[in-house]
Every structure is written in structure tokens, then in C-alpha cells.
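Customer escalation, tier 2.

The customer says the design service returned an amino acid string that "doesn't look like it belongs to this structure." They asked us to rerun it and document both sides in this ticket. The original C-alpha cells are below, unchanged.
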């Protein structure tokens, strides 16, 4: 009963709070923007990102971490930052940490860039502590895999480098979908990304990504810690055209195997005759 009351209180507290989170510039500052608007913007080539829910009374520090773990300080113009072009291949991290009175904010956005090999694994970037409270991917998807709808992914809630058990994690998407999870004894949460895309085309390249935001909160030493992780996710081909293609392929393959078997059987019968 105590756990249920705690969870209800935590859920209500998080739902009333504002969290910082990164998105590519051009999206509405509210997480509930239309899918068509998201598609319209995603066709634009930009390296500018916006820090949502930021206000002028916050003390914000933003940085860009390369795959080599080299860190570059970023300047914010209002809530916008323009990323420098990276020469390295692999994941980079866009990070912001802020304070306002007794509130500590942090947000991370991982983005993949192409360039020369960095000689470093994405695991190093993931395990690098970027904030006191952090949502860590376990692991980041490979470049050509990416986060996809209808699939399960694991994340770890970490506070001061240690996993947080029984912590509430919220999931929200640009379409307005939301869900909540509870971390296990190792601070791990398994999240299912929703298939909330509309106007899906039967071609991977014609479907632009949407974005999800994970958020969590922790209280410690009379301070409130807020953390988010925002990332793009894509249409899952198996929800649409790929399942049809595999079905047709299976039928066709079965037909060919059956035809080949009957042919061999017929030839064997003729020889026996």
C-alpha cells in the first residue's frame, strides 16, 4: 500500500513539473505538436537545436561532447544553439545542465554524425557522467538500426553514478502519447515505444522520425533533480510493409520448395518405373 501511495504521489509531482529537453529547432515548445508539423520540419536540413522549457531565471550551461569525449562549451541565444560541424563518425551528446533556486535540471540528446573513425565506442560516451541525475540508454541503437516504434528498449536511471531503484520514468512523444514505468532494483526500465505515426508510407525513406522524451525526478538534500533524455524514433517496417513482404516471400518460398520436391519425386518415380 505504501508503494502505491508513493507511486501516485511521484506521478502527480512529475506531471506538475516542467522539464528541460532538447529538440531540433522548429518544433513546438510543447511536447504535443502535430505529426504533420514534425514531418514538415524534418525535411529541413539544420544543425540548430532548441532547449525547451528554459526561462530567463535559470542558470544554464550547455555543452557538446564528441565521441572522443572532448567537450565543447555551447552558447545559447535565447533557447537556441547552433552546433559546430563534427569531423568524427559516431554518436555525439548534446547536454544542458541548469539551476534555479533548489531545482537542478539536466537533459541529454544523442545524435549520430558521419566523419572519420573516432576510435572510441559509444559505450564510453554513454558511461560518461553528464549530470547528477541521468537517464542512460542500455545501449544506444546502431546507426542503421535506430530507435523504432513497437520495440522494447532498456534505460537506467542513475543518481550520482549509482542506479536508482523504484523510480518513476515518464515517456512522452510528439503525438501526445504518454506512459509511465518503474525502475527495478538495478535502476533499469524497459520502455516500449508506441506506434503512434500517422499517414505512414510503405517506404522507409518517405517516413520521417518523430521524437520521444523520457523524464524522471529525484529529491535529495532539500533539492529537486530533474532529468530528461530526448531522442528520435522511426516507423517500424514490420508494423507495415515489411511484414507483408515477408509473408509473400514465405508463401513464394513455400511454393518453390513444394514444386522442387514434387519434381524430384516425379523423377524418382519415373526411374523406379
Amino acid at each position: 500500500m505504501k508503494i502505491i501511495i508513493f507511486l501516485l504521489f511521484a506521478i502527480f509531482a512529475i506531471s506538475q513539473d516542467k522539464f528541460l529537453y532538447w529538440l531540433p529547432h522548429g518544433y513546438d515548445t510543447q511536447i504535443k505538436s502535430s505529426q504533420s508539423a514534425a514531418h514538415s520540419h524534418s525535411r529541413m536540413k539544420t544543425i540548430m537545436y532548441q532547449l525547451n522549457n528554459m526561462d530567463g531565471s535559470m542558470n544554464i550551461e550547455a555543452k557538446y561532447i564528441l565521441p572522443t569525449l572532448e567537450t565543447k562549451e555551447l552558447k545559447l541565444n535565447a533557447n537556441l544553439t547552433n552546433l559546430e560541424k563534427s569531423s568524427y563518425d559516431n554518436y555525439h551528446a548534446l547536454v544542458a545542465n541548469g539551476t534555479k533556486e533548489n531545482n537542478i535540471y539536466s537533459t541529454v540528446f544523442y545524435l549520430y554524425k558521419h566523419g572519420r573513425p573516432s576510435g572510441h565506442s559509444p559505450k564510453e560516451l554513454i558511461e560518461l557522467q553528464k549530470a547528477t541525475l541521468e537517464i542512460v540508454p542500455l545501449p544506444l541503437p546502431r546507426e542503421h538500426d535506430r530507435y523504432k516504434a513497437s520495440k522494447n528498449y532498456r534505460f537506467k536511471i542513475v543518481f550520482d553514478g549509482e542506479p536508482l531503484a523504484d523510480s518513476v520514468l515518464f515517456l512522452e512523444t510528439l503525438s501526445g502519447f504518454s506512459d509511465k514505468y518503474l525502475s527495478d532494483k538495478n535502476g533499469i526500465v524497459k520502455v516500449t515505444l508506441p506506434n503512434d505515426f500517422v499517414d505512414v508510407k510503405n517506404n522507409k525513406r518517405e517516413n520521417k522520425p518523430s521524437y520521444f522524451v523520457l523524464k524522471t525526478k529525484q529529491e535529495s538534500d532539500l533539492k529537486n533533480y530533474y532529468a530528461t533524455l530526448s531522442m528520435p524514433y522511426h516507423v517500424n517496417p514490420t508494423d507495415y510493409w515489411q511484414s507483408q513482404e515477408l509473408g509473400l516471400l514465405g508463401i513464394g518460398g513455400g511454393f518453390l520448395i513444394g514444386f522442387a520436391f514434387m519434381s524430384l519425386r516425379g523423377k524418382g518415380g519415373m526411374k523406379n518405373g
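Tier 2 assessment: The sequence is consistent with the input. Confidence is low (pLDDT under 50) at residues 2-13, 29-46, 244-249. The helical segments are 2-16, 35-42, 122-127, 241-272. Sent an explanation to the customer and offered a walkthrough call.
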